[in-house]
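Entry:
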Amino acid sequence: MLANRRRGVMRYSRRPSRTRGGQEGQLKKIQAAAGATLALVLACSPVPCRAQSLDLPREPQPARAFDTQGLFDTPREDRRTLSAFPKNLGRNVVGVFSGRNLVPLVIGAGASTLASAFDYRTKDVLQGACPSCGKTGATLGGSAVVPVVGALFVAGRFAPQGRFRAASYDFAQAMIVNGAYTGLVKHTVTRGRPDGSDSLSFPSGHTSSAFSLAGVARHHYGWKIGVPMYALAAGIGLSRIEQDRHHLSDVLAGATLGFIVGRTVTRLDAERPAKPRFVSVGPATDPHGQGVGLGLSASW
């Protein structure tokens, strides 16, 4: 019995130690859970969460400046536009004096000067040789040019981008530029016509107009069209001698002028528009972002 009591005491004495160890383990688990909960609460407390939800300050957007870019520039893809027609006329009028035209000008002026010695001989050979040719040349190089070129220009505005559209534009430019220079030289030189009708013989306007259009045709359609057009232009010039309206030197001078105008128009109209020119005005600050001022910039 004594042994049994001792065993019972030992069993009783061991139970409290196990219970104490289990309680300590549970206490540690509770403390760990409480610590994790506290850390979570601190991490997601209202103030930090609000701080995280605040939007970062955005950089101030620069104010849009007023500029005139759309007022002066032409479309980048092509210079041959209806709105740029007057501006292109001015460029082509000035472009006639380009250094690239010096060689044909010298050659044409020299040929015209030398031909003046054969003016009357040529007249005697051609006058009355083909009256119908003279009348045809007078029509093709004169009264028929304006309506034909005008109709081509209008048709070209409705045509898609391509060779015909560009050629019709250059035809109109060449006709106007050539007419301006021909009239200027005529009223400056005031040479009398062979038939004595007036003093506007030099240079031949029919010839210069025909050669300027032939130059445009050659540029856009190649020599297969250019050669017949130049031959037609030469025939128109000779027909003016046959009609006793011009001397040989007048015709050669007109051919030189028309050739120069045609090559100038096609060269300048084919160039891509230059960098747009504009003026921009708007608010500005110093490099550190302090202070307010007015900024002015220009591009040309």
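The longest helix spans residues 2-43.
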